[in-house]
Specification:
276 residues; alpha/beta; TIM Barrel; 8-stranded parallel beta sheet; binds pterin-6-yl-methyl-monophosphate
Amino acid sequence: MTRPLVMGVVNVTPDSFSDGGRYLDPDAAVARGLALVAEGADVVDVGGESTRPGAEPVDPDEEARRVVPVVDALHRHVRVSVDTRRGSVARAAVAAGATLVNDVSASLYDVAADLGVGWVAMHMRGEPGTMQDDPRYDDVVAEVTGFLVERVAAARAAGVPEVWIDPGIGFGKTIDHNLALLAHLDRLVSTGLPVLVGTSRKRFLGDLLARADGQIGAADGPGPVPVDDRLEGSLATVVWAARAGVTMVRVHDVAATVAALGRVDADDPRSPAAPG
Ligand code: PMM
């Protein structure tokens, strides 16, 4: 197994579901990014707008104000991606040193082409505000794969030099949709395009862990397990994705991810899977 690259997350937002409010201060965000680099992050993804279900859009000028100083400080130490749906924010972040546009709207390929930087096309059904309102697919794996392949063709035609695809776990998807996409990551990998996947701390993991405890469906149950108690689920899905051949995983817990991937990597002499 080739170890996937690890993309560490820094959300410079007041309201992201897992780390909202912790890194709104630029110094705190830069310190967090540097800590992720020390933990082994290959890329640091800086975002200034929460895309959690139900989130309100942020003014692009405000979003740029949040991310630019953080990108500027971090790009001297690590490859930086900017997590944005806005062309103006992508441009400002690239001017500050970002070299990858992580685009959950899968629409900014013309900006990436113009700037000559990499681009991640992520699949999302609808908008963050409403995407979890009863999402439906006939065949989620085929529809997501088809959408991404079509976006990549457009990006290549526009001249984007580096293109990634991401199924967008949790973006307009039920638990079953997320599990189907994870079960068939090989379909995305077999396109020959580099695949990025992000499961870290997501709601479906909280629901699955609660379901395992018999809580889901119980009228008086406490609901999904809290964000901070989803590490095992995050690591299990990262290892699963790595075995399926993805090229990069997007995570909040970089040190634990690097350790987990090392344990199952047959090329790593510490691994129980190592030959001999
Ligand atoms: N998930 C979130 C935000 N950005 N980008 C990509 N490419 N893939 C993802 O799965 C993804 C993303 C939501 O997580 P966060 O609010 O903790 O950043």
